Predict the structure of polynucleotide 5'-hydroxyl-kinase.
Amino acid sequence: MEGVGSNKAIYTTDVPEDRVELVEMIASLEKPVVMFIGDVDSGKTTSLTFVANELVNLGYRVGIVDSDLGQKGILPPATVSLGIAEENFPSLSEIEPYLHYFIGITTPSQYIGETVVGVKRLVDVARSLADVVLIDTTGFVTGPGFELKRLKIEAVRPDLAVFIESTGERERAIEELIEVSSSLTETVLLRRSDKVKSHSQEERRAIREAKWRAYFSSSSPVIVDLSTLRVSGTSMFSGRPLTGEEKELFERLHDWVVLAGWKGKESYTVVKADSGRRPYNRSVIKAIDFETLSNLLIGFIDELGFCLGLGILKWPRLSEGLLEVLTPLSEDELSRAVEVRFGRIRVTESGEELALLRREEL
């Protein structure tokens, strides 16, 4: 694989005729927003890449909203990103990012609301910057993925929703999405190209690994002082710190080593290391295992709620209100952050994905 790998979708003019017709259709519309929808390995991003390049050739300024969280072209992963294309590009990874919205995980199933908000906000920005806005989406079309696509269409109200044929269970999902979408927007169904290549889970993981590695390749360690920033995406740091007596009580009752804790209005949040596995009242105590914070992805958020960039939490100095973080962001970029948001994936700077966390774990 070559560098940012790696990207599965490369600009090619060897495409089915209906892609050429699609370019003509989009060019006939006034500042359109176009959403591409299809299942995994259906050729969505390849089709979008072709359309974007052909529109650039016609003199259009093209905004691209990349919401394929795991197989992102416009880096980094775990965000929704906006890029602007004014000249031909071989793959989305060659487009300079303009703006990001932090999701914090590579699969949107537990973060449908945030993903929809991110897409809508970036489309709103893109409308003011570009002649045409194209939206890439995940291959997640069944179960929660169906609702995600429906809500994206309902929130964005694209001028055109472009679907790609599928097979089996996903074929029915695509048909139902077209049916649901037809009252909200014009729809087009493209045939599935016979040149589409399927990728195994191992190949997809390797592609993500290359993208993580590329994004964090120029990172440096920084100390983040949480007394100067808001904290979101976690129940930690909410409420007052535990007293020494409370901390000692938790340790004695539950056989924990309590590293930090906070008391809210009706519950406690405790960061602990286990010495034992005694049961506890989960409706009153939220217990966070210290090891889940190691290599946790975090986002630096600006005053408008957009993501300046990502960091990897290397050492949480919770009792001091400090985080040791690895990030490619410059000192100037970090100075614009007003908030630190906790994600739900643990990943190393070399690209190894250690774990996906459940939303409620933090």
